[in-house]
Amino acid sequence: MYQSTNFQGGRPVNASKLKTIILASSATIMAASLMVFPKESFEASLRGLTMWWEVVFPSLLPFFIVSEFLIGFGVVSFLGTLLEPLMRPLFRVPGVGGFVWAMGLASGYPAGAKLTARLRQENKLTAIEAERLVSFTNSSNPLFIFGAIAVGFFHNPALGIVLALSHYLGNFCVGLVMRFHGSKKEETTQKDKDNKLSLKTALHMLHQERLKDGRPIGKILGDAVQSSVSTLLMIGGFIILFSVLNRLLSLLDITTLLSLFVSVILAFFHMPNELSLPLISGIFEITLGGQMASQTGAATLFQQVIITSFILAFSGFSVQAQVASILAETDIRFKPFFIARLFHGLFAAFFTVILWKPLYVDQQLVEKGTNTVPVFLQGETYSVFHNMWQLLLTYGQLVTLIALMIYVVLTFKKLSP
């Protein structure tokens, strides 16, 4: 009798009631804030919509559609068999994780989560393997790091290589750390895995997977577009929501209050208090945090880049909410992913400190002293990313509009008898 009255679903009743009160109060405060600050909320909403409309949607859509094709045609199973000897010893995930890792790196978050959830739904991953995989396959794409952050915010293309290497090396280290996640549960099941490379087996898996899917090309294309656009609409909602939330927290001075606690941590690392506000903003939303960090005059460039690197790696509550929504459709837990983001932020900041002198300071001295620039720091290399970013900003909204029109047509066609 005592347990039934004081516990619900394994949780104390008081804790459950407290959670209900907190959630209800938060929603009420947010609703009231929207009414008090309608103009500011609208502008923040418009800012989030613009980012999704011009950048996020057109940059992610092709990768999502191509991924569905590769899964349907059996290419993922083919690559998984070939990559098994690499991915299993390093990260303790199946070879298909190599495909997710590559696509996540190229397209940016939350592509890794979407593909991991998709493979889990098809039982190509166990729940533990999926939790390991999703922890290190969600990263920022190079276009955003070089085009938006290095060139757009800092107006310094040479910073791109430092930020990118720190980001991806940090993600690699997260994968190595998370390989120990759930090790006791899989001690007996994963011991006898065959990790031998076999092209014949890979080709057989490719053929069998295509036959197993059985859908014609037109059907796969239609399903790919609908699934991809549906996911991107959800992502857009989160981007707009957190853009508004971030603005409201600033207007209510909650961000300023939180920054007081963060300033204590920054002081421990001998960083100026002025970076606390960009860090708090970046914890909620990457783009705003990166922009604010680049405009903090009281900090040195080195300190600005460290904070920006942490923000990029932590990926912000906005991206994490997108991932949580995607993982909610499976039995993959969100908690390991959140812990991995903390590790990623620390690793990325650490690598920024390590790489700063050899990849930025020394190279700047070489450039000034000899009027030459190393191959990987040549302006042409960065101009490619900058031009691609500008191209995306110019024509991205057109791609989004066309894709949404196709999505509407396919949806009506599917609903019509």
UniProtKB/TrEMBL annotation:
Transmembrane residues, as ranges? 20-37, 57-83, 143-169, 220-242, 248-268, 305-326, 338-356, 392-412
Domain named Nucleoside transporter/FeoB GTPase Gate: which ranges?
Answer: 55-152
Q: Which InterPro entries match?
A: Gate_dom, Spore_IM_YlbJ
> What domain of life does the native source organism fall in?
Bacteria
User: Could you tell me which Pfam families the record lists for this protein?
Assistant: Gate
User: Which keywords does this chain's UniProt record carry?
Assistant: Membrane, Transmembrane, Transmembrane helix
Q: Which NCBIfam families match?
A: spore_ylbJ
Q: Can you say what this protein is called?
A: Sporulation integral membrane protein YlbJ
